[in-house]
Design a protein that fits this description.
single chain, alpha+beta, 4-stranded mixed β-sheet, 2 helices, 4 strands, 16% strand
């Protein structure tokens, strides 16, 4: 399907630990940015890795920290 914002991907995998926040991957020329973190999923992690991985994680507020440590180390 066609994207409304090219290079911006809604990641899904909402987590109760983040009060269901919406997470996004933003692809850019200088690297990819994960905006807030979804529930960790090895399938999603592999798809993101296939798109170049994550160069920077941005946590918009304290409630959206969730499983950021798992995403940081990829486990």
């Amino acid at each position: 399907h066609e994207q409304e914002l090219p290079g911006v991907y809604h990641l899904g995998y909402h987590a109760a630990s983040t009060y269901g926040c919406a997470s996004y991957l933003i692809r850019g020329a200088r690297g990819n940015i994960m905006m807030d973190v979804p529930r960790y999923s090895s399938l999603l992690a592999q798809r993101i890795e296939d798109m170049g991985g994550v160069d920077l994680m941005v946590l918009s507020h304290r409630d959206d920290v969730g499983e950021h440590a798992r995403w940081k180390v990829g486990r």
